[in-house]
């Protein structure tokens, strides 16, 4: 149906066979490769093909994301703190039935987030989404969906292919004769917050969609180390150094790998500088010990000159870490496998390279040392046997703990 509409709009009236769904499509192979161990295997030709497809395939439709549609016209733009998770982003569909989340460039690479900005009003950065995918793969987490940069023609590849009249209505020509568009209401309410092409071309990140919730249900769970989304509020973990003792008593953090996965996520977020991890998602199919999805990373890589130690609270307060995670971090601290060098080489594969500036790359090495120092302090206090967990075992949660969840 979408292919037919696409051909009609281009006045391609010659008979054409219905476009078949190719079993070897990159996005489909990516979906089929999701397992208990991660979103994709360590060496995945499907991911390589999917990244190439998102760079090159024709875009046949553009629309707002579901969360923006849900909030359209319902948010109060006079409020300083906007609904969480909402950003100027679009769903782009490709000729092979695949789709990706497009986040446009809002901030230049060399710009740092002003130090007076609160994390919940920070810009979201397209290059942070791209860099987060590469870092996640280097750390061998494989919990960030494949993400790639692309130069989009906002006129031909968004305005002219969208059926959404609201989206069509927010396009305008700037005084500099650049084509611009903005979110109608949910996040950036006014034209001064628009993003603009040059005059039509605009950088952005494309993140592959996960399988639909009907096929692969997911849970969205509040992060125990969630931050206060107010100007002066504090959460308990910010004022109570023994907070982790309370968390350990609560199912599922009491008898599963969940707490270790939270620590993994905190390490990942500390390296990127992302302070906005208020929720995390999991596939229900893999149960309590399934991996956490590292989604929405656009608030990372904002300040290379500042290391936000509070992001490491799950590690420093709980003093536990997976052995495999620690070994990977120690390897990336070695001169011949330095994290900044591995990241620099990996990011050169992206069409928008250089994705990160040199100060951001060097900040990764500095933050990695801080993580290892935090682990070292824990080992000095509690001993390696207590701190470093053998994450190859998959413990089952007792029935009594499951009963707690039900109540």
Automatic annotation (TrEMBL):
One of its GO terms (cellular component) is Golgi apparatus. It is found in: Golgi apparatus. InterPro entries: FAM20 (IPR024869), FAM20_C (IPR009581). Its cofactor is Mn(2+). Keywords: ATP-binding, Disulfide bond, Glycoprotein, Golgi apparatus, Kinase, Manganese, Metal-binding, Nucleotide-binding, Transferase. GO terms for molecular function: ATP binding; kinase activity; metal ion binding; protein serine/threonine kinase activator activity. Mn(2+) binds at residue 296. ATP binds at residues 103, 207-210, 281, 296. Pfam families: Fam20C (PF06702). Residues 171-387 form the FAM20 C-terminal domain. Its main location: Golgi. Belongs to the FAM20 family. This is FA20A Pseudokinase. The gene is Fam20a.
């Amino acid at each position: 149906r979408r292919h037919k509409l696409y051909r009609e709009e281009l006045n391609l009236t010659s008979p054409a066979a219905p476009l078949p769904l190719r079993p070897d499509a990159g996005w489909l192979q990516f979906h089929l490769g999701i397992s208990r161990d991660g979103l994709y295997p360590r060496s995945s030709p499907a991911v390589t093909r999917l990244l190439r497809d998102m760079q090159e395939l024709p875009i046949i439709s553009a629309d707002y994301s579901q969360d923006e549609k849900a909030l359209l016209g319902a948010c109060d733009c006079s409020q300083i703190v906007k609904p969480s998770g909402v950003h100027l982003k679009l769903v782009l569909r490709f000729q092979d039935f695949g789709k990706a989340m497009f986040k446009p460039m809002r901030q230049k690479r060399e710009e740092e987030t002003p130090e007076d900005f609160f994390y919940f009003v920070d810009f979201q950065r397209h290059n942070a989404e791209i860099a987060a995918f590469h870092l996640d793969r280097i750390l061998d987490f494989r919990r960030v969906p494949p993400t790639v940069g692309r130069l989009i023609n906002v006129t031909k590849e968004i305005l002219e292919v969208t059926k959404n009249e609201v989206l069509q209505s927010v396009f305008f020509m700037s005084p500099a004769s650049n084509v611009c568009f903005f979110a109608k209401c949910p996040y950036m309410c006014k034209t001064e917050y628009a993003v603009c092409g040059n005059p039509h071309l605009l950088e952005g990140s494309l993140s592959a969609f996960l399988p639909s919730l009907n096929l692969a249900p997911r849970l969205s769970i509040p992060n125990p180390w969630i931050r206060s989304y107010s100007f002066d509020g504090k959460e308990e973990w910010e004022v109570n150094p023994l907070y982790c003792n309370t968390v350990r008593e609560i199912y599922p953090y009491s008898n599963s790998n969940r707490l270790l996965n939270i620590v993994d996520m905190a390490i990942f977020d500390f390296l990127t500088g992302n302070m906005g991890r208020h929720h995390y998602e999991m596939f229900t199919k893999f149960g309590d010990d399934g991996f956490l999805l590292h989604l929405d990373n656009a608030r990372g890589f904002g300040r290379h000159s500042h290391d936000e130690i509070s992001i490491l609270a799950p590690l420093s307060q709980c003093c536990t870490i997976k052995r495999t995670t620690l070994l990977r971090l120690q390897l990336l601290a070695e001169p011949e496998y330095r994290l900044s060098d591995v990241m620099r080489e990996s990011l050169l594969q992206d069409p928008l390279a250089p994705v990160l500036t040199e100060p951001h790359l060097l900040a990764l090495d500095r933050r990695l040392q801080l993580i290892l120092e935090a682990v070292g302090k824990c080992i000095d206090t509690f001993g390696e046997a207590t701190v470093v967990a053998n994450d190859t075992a998959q413990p089952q949660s007792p029935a009594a703990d499951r009963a707690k969840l039900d109540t």
